[in-house]
């Protein structure tokens, strides 16, 4: 089973939704048959780096509310994160542009490390207060998951994987993604948002049962139609 997840490194619901999917996977009887692939989605592609604002001010400005209301909203999000075992330290969060972080995820994918890389990026941003737009920080995080630090730095200083990030965003637009996280199962079923664990588990079971009961190859021509073929012994019509 293939699961594609459109998400952003700085999206709190993406991290929460990831945890709920993982919890569903632990209850699913065929976890070893699941392959997860992250797809890039920038919530604010024009965001700047090194802005002189904390995340409470950014949120308050976005919704046109007082600073205290922005902080209250983040505090509520932090409480929700605790229900899935995550620690969000919004007072330490550093707002930034996430394109380079997404490029790093694609680089990691080439070496089978995308899943680990995305987890490390999200934890660095939400829990540890690290600047995931900084190349030095990104290289350190990449090294922690087993990537070559020098190769990562070389990649970040180039334009590699920008097209991958853009292509993922375009694919999201084409299939009607309006917000993240967005989960697609076997290119057939989609789940939008950080749904409860039970929802993910139901989808996992539904997709698995359908795939198990459906032949891998479906013959589309009528069985009664005239056909020409060869079997082990002869050829005929």
Structure, described:
By secondary structure, the chain is an alpha+beta fold. Helix content is 48%, strand content 10%. The chain is built from 9 helices and 6 strands. The protein has helices spanning 12-27, 55-63, 67-82, 99-109, 114-126, 135-144, 149-156, 162-174, 197-213; strands at 2-7, 35-40, 182-185, 189-192, 229-230, 235-236. The strands form 2 sheets. The chain has a 4-stranded mixed beta sheet, sandwiched between helices. Strands 5-6 form a two-stranded antiparallel sheet. Helix 1 (12-27) links the parallel strand 1 (2-7) and strand 2. Helix 2 (55-63) crosses helix 3, helix 4 packs antiparallel against helix 5 and helix 6 (135-144) packs antiparallel against helix 7. It is globular and about 80 Å long.
The radius of gyration is: 22 Å
What structural class results from the helix and strand content?
alpha+beta
Q: How much β-strand is present in the residues?
A: 5-15%
User: What is the subunit arrangement here?
Assistant: single chain
Number of strands: 6
- What is the share of helical residues? 40-55%
Instruction: Name the strands of the widest sheet in spatial order.
Output: 2-1-3-4
Based on Cα principal axes, name the global outline. Answer: globular
* N-to-C SSE string, H for helix and E for strand: EHEHHHHHHHEEHEE
- Outline the biggest β-sheet: 4 strands, mixed
End-to-end separation in angstroms reads 38 Å
Counting H and I runs of at least 4 residues, what is the number of helices? 9
Uncertain regions: pLDDT < 50 for 5+ in a row?
Answer: none
Mean pLDDT: 93
């Amino acid at each position: 089973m293939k699961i594609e997840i459109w998400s952003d490194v700085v999206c709190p619901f993406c991290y929460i939704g990831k945890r709920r999917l993982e919890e569903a996977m632990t209850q699913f009887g065929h976890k070893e048959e699941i392959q997860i692939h992250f797809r890039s989605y920038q919530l604010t592609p024009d965001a700047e780096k090194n802005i002189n604002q904390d995340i409470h001010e950014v949120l308050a400005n976005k919704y046109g509310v007082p600073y205290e209301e922005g902080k209250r909203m983040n505090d509520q999000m932090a409480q929700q994160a605790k229900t899935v075992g995550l620690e969000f330290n919004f007072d330490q969060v550093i707002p930034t542009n996430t394109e380079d972080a997404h490029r790093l995820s694609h680089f990691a994918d080439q070496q089978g490390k995308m899943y680990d890389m995305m987890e490390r990026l999200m934890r660095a941003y939400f829990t540890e207060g690290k600047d995931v737009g900084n190349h030095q920080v990104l290289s350190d995080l990449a090294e922690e998951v087993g990537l070559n630090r020098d190769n990562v730095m070389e990649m970040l200083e180039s334009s590699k994987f920008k097209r991958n990030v853009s292509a993922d965003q375009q694919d999201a637009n084409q299939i009607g993604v309006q917000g993240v996280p967005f989960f697609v199962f076997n290119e057939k079923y989609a789940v939008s948002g950080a749904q409860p664990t039970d929802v993910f588990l139901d989808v996992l079971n539904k997709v698995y049962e359908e795939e198990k009961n459906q032949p891998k190859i479906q013959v589309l021509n009528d069985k009664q139609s005239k056909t020409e073929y060869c079997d082990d012994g002869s050829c005929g019509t």
